[in-house]
Amino acid sequence: MTGLRYVYAVCRPLGAPLQAQLTGVAGAPAKSLAHHGLVAVVSEVPERDFSEEALRARLEDLDWLAATARAHQGVIDALTVVTTPLPLRLATVFRDDSGVRAMIESREEHFRQTLERLQGRVEWGVKVYVEPERSEEPAAAGAGRRPASGRDYLRQRRQESRAHEDRWQRAETFATRLHGRLSAFAEESRLHAPQNPALSGAAGQNVLNAAYLVPRAHSEEFVELVDRTKDEAPGLRVELTGPWAAYSFAGENPEGDAGGNP
Question: Which ranges are annotated Basic and acidic residues under compositional bias (predicted)?
């Protein structure tokens, strides 16, 4: 390798070589770098794009950032199939192999403890969205009609406000109950800030954005548990994503939305 080292994850020694066709950021093949009984999964990236100065500019380019995040996630997804990876932050770059080894040594205890805790476990993401109720659509369509009087206008606004408050109360009650149910099943859970629809592009208002750490062997039961809740709250949409590497439980703060939640 002659370029910089882009590090995707740290894991335990793999039982088999990485897939020869597994490519990551900048189209470079992913390779394993063993050190002190741990493995860093890395690839070579050009200094012109990944030096500290170049990265500051690149991270402002949303198209480049999205492509890099997809390539990064592709390697993590491939690793998740065969092992329990500890994902590192997007665009974690070192000058050479020695820099990667020094990073492993400086955080070796954390890596070992975290990999032990996450072994055989995956992350599932669950989001709940409030969608417009169908009964409100005709009213919205006729919102341009002038009320018969000021009193009628005030009454209409009170009814709309009451309906809005009732809908949000139902949504919050459902989300709290669902999170409690899923947390009781999972080994660990994390609540993330609700997603901004202008950034996520998802329809509706996000009222629950949570991640759950589940043994891989129990994933089917977790999925069934989520599926059984989807018809319990009309006007709400429940979305399940995963299984992901355990980003939310790894002690890292990766850029972007992984799944994951990954």
Answer: 152-168
pLDDT in tens, 134-156: 544 444 444 555 656 666 667 66
Tokens standing for residue 261: 């939640």
Nearest to 92 by CA among 76, 110, 113, 115: 76
Is the pLDDT at 129 greater than 80? The verdict is yes
What CATH number matches the domain at 121-249, 1.20.120, 3.30.950, 3.40.190, 3.30.70?
3.30.70
- Cα angle 40, 46, 52; round to 5: 80
Hey, what are 96's tokens? 């050479």
> In 10 A of CB 173, how many CB atoms?
11
Task: Tell me: cis bond preceding 46? Omega within 30 of 0 counts.
Answer: no
Residue 35 forms beta bridges with which residues? 38
Alpha helices in 34-149 (DSSP H): 47-50, 52-58, 62-82, 97-106, 108-118, 137-141
% of the chain beyond a pLDDT of 70? 82
Instruction: Tell me whether residue 166 is exposed, middle or buried, using C-beta atoms within 10 angstroms of its C-beta: 0 to 12, 13 to 18, 19 or more.
Output: exposed
Which residues have CB under 8 Å from 80's CB, separation 6+?
A: 122, 243, 244, 245
Side chain identity at 259, as an amino acid letter? G
Nearest alpha carbon to residue 128 among 166, 174, 169: 174
* Annotated domain spans of the chain: 4-118, 121-249
User: Sheet holding 188-191: strands in order across?
Assistant: 188-191, 205-215, 121-130, 236-244
Whether the pTM exceeds 0.85: the reply is no
pLDDT higher than threshold 50 for residue 256: no
